[in-house]
Specification:
CATH superfamily: MFS general substrate transporter like domains
Radius of gyration: 20 Å
Largest sheet: none
CATH architecture: Up-down Bundle
Number of helices: 17
CATH class: Mainly Alpha
Length: 399
C-alpha cells in the first residue's frame, strides 16, 4: 500500500484527480456531521428530513439525463475545474441554509452537479489508466474515503471546541477552493470531449444487475453517512463529541480497503470481492442494529466500510468496459443506480424510522446487502472482471 500511494502522490496529474475525490468526501463528511443540527434548526423530523434528502437523487437523475449532452460539448477538464468549486459554494449554503426552501434547492443542485462531476472524473481516470498503463481507480476512491474520514474527524474535534457546523464548513470549503485553484492547470489539460453520442441505451438485465449492486453499496454508504450521527445521538445517547465517529470509522475502513484495493482485486478477482464484501457489510449492519454498546456499534460501522470498500472500484471498472457502450453511457447506466441508492436510501430509512424506529429501519440494510451478494453470485459479467489481467490485453480489448 505504501509504495502504491507514494507513486500516486508523486504524479501531480493523477494526484489532482485524486484530490477531486477527496473534495467530495470532505464536503460530505462535514455535512453528515452537521445533519443533527440542521434537523433541529429547520424543524425536521425523521420523515420530513428523509423526504428532503430525496431531492438530491432527483438532481442526480437530472444529471444522468443531461450527461451525454453536456459531455459532447464541454471538455472533461473544463467541467472538473469548475464543477468541484461549485460544490464548495453549494455546500456552504446548504449547511447554513436559513430556511427549508434554500436547503431543498441546494440538495437538488448538489445531486445534479455531483453526478456530472462523477461522470467527468471517473471517465478521465479510466482513460489515464490506459494511457499510463497503471491502475489507480481504487486509490482514487480511497482518496474520497480519506477525505470523509478527515472531515468527520475534524468535525468531532471542532464540536469538542464548540465550533459550530456553519463555521466548520466555511473553513473546510475555503481550504479546498484554494487547492482547487492551484490544481486547475492539471485539470484543464484534459481537453478532450468524453462523449460523442446523443443518448443513453436501454440497459440489459446484466447491466441492471450490476447497477443494483451499486445501488445497495451506495445505499449503505449514504445511510451510514446520513444516519450514523443521528443513530449514535438519539438511539445510543452518545456524547456529542462522538456522534461523528461512526462515519469516521466507516470512512477510515473504506480508505484502507481502497488504498489496498488494486492488489487485492488482482489476487482475489472482482466477483469474489463483491460477494464477500456484501456479506461483510450485512454482518456490520447486524452488529449496529443488535448491539447496545457504543464502541461495538462503531466497530459495526467499520465492518460495513471494509465490506463496501473494494466493491465500488470493481463496478466502476465494469461500467467502463461494457461492449458496445461508451464509458460515459456505461458509467451513467450503472452509477445512476448507485446514486439513487446513496441519496434515496437515507430517505427510505427516514420514512421507516418515523413509523417503526431507527433501529428497525436500519435492519433493511442487512437484507439489501444479502440481496447484493446473491446478485453478484448470479451475475455472469462479474466473472471476467479481474484486475490481474495484463494491461496490454486490457487495452487490446478496448481498441
Amino acid at each position: 500500500m505504501i509504495n502504491n500511494f507514494t507513486s500516486f502522490i508523486r504524479n501531480r496529474s493523477i494526484l489532482a484527480l485524486g484530490f477531486l475525490y477527496a473534495t467530495n468526501g470532505m464536503l460530505l463528511g462535514i455535512f453528515f456531521a452537521s445533519l443533527p443540527g440542521i434537523k433541529q434548526r429547520l424543524g425536521f423530523d425523521d420523515g420530513s428530513l428523509g423526504l428532503s434528502l430525496f431531492l438530491s437523487p432527483v438532481g442526480a437523475i437530472t444529471g444522468m439525463l443531461l450527461s451525454t449532452r453536456v459531455f459532447s460539448k464541454i471538455p472533461a477538464g473544463k467541467w472538473m475545474s469548475s464543477g468541484y468549486m461549485a460544490l464548495c459554494f453549494l455546500m456552504m449554503l446548504q449547511v447554513n441554509a436559513p430556511n427549508r426552501l434554500i436547503f431543498w434547492i441546494c440538495l437538488y443542485f448538489y445531486g445534479l452537479i455531483s453526478f456530472l462531476n462523477g461522470v467527468s472524473v471517473n471517465t478521465t481516470v479510466n482513460k489515464m489508466e490506459r494511457q499510463q498503463e497503471k491502475l489507480f481507480m481504487s486509490t482514487c476512491h480511497g482518496m474520497y474515503s480519506m477525505g470523509g474520514a478527515l472531515s468527520t474527524g475534524l468535525a468531532a474535534a471542532f464540536f469538542a471546541f464548540h465550533l459550530a457546523s456553519d463555521w466548520q464548513i466555511v473553513s473546510v470549503a475555503v481550504i479546498i477552493l484554494c487547492v482547487l485553484v492551484g490544481n486547475r492547470k492539471y485539470l484543464l489539460v484534459h481537453s478532450e470531449l468524453i462523449h460523442s453520442r446523443s443518448g443513453i441505451k436501454l440497459p440489459s438485465f446484466t447491466i441492471l444487475g450490476i447497477s443494483f449492486i451499486c445501488l445497495v453499496t451506495f445505499m449503505a454508504e449514504g445511510c451510514v453517512a446520513d444516519w450514523s450521527a443521528i443513530y449514535l445521538k438519539e438511539v445510543m445517547h452518545s456524547p456529542v463529541a462522538f456522534i461523528g465517529l461512526g462515519y469516521t470509522g466507516f470512512a477510515i475502513a473504506m480508505t484502507l480497503g481502497r488504498l489496498n484495493g488494486d492488489s487485492i482485486i488482482s489476487r482475489v478477482g472482482g466477483k469474489k470481492i463483491v460477494i464477500f464484501g456484501s456479506l461483510l457489510a450485512a454482518a456490520g449492519f447486524s452488529i449496529v442494529v443488535f448491539t447496545p454498546y457504543i464502541p461495538v456499534v462503531i466497530g459495526g460501522y467499520i465492518l460495513v466500510g471494509l465490506g463496501c470498500s473494494c466493491i465500488v472500484p470493481v463496478l466502476f471498472t465494469a461500467s467502463a468496459n461494457i461492449p458496445g457502450v461508451s464509458m460515459v453511457e456505461g458509467y451513467a447506466m450503472i452509477t445512476t443506480g448507485g446514486l439513487i441508492g446513496f441519496l434515496t436510501g437515507p430517505s427510505v430509512i427516514g420514512f421507516i424510522s418515523k413509523h417503526a424506529g431507527l433501529s428497525k429501519a436500519l435492519s433493511l440494510l442487512i437484507f439489501m446487502a444479502l440481496l447484493a451478494a446473491v446478485a453478484a453470485w448470479r451475475n455472469k459479467f462479474l466473472v471476467n472482471i479481474k484486475r490481474a489481467e495484463p494491461v496490454l490485453e486490457y487495452d487490446e480489448q478496448i481498441y
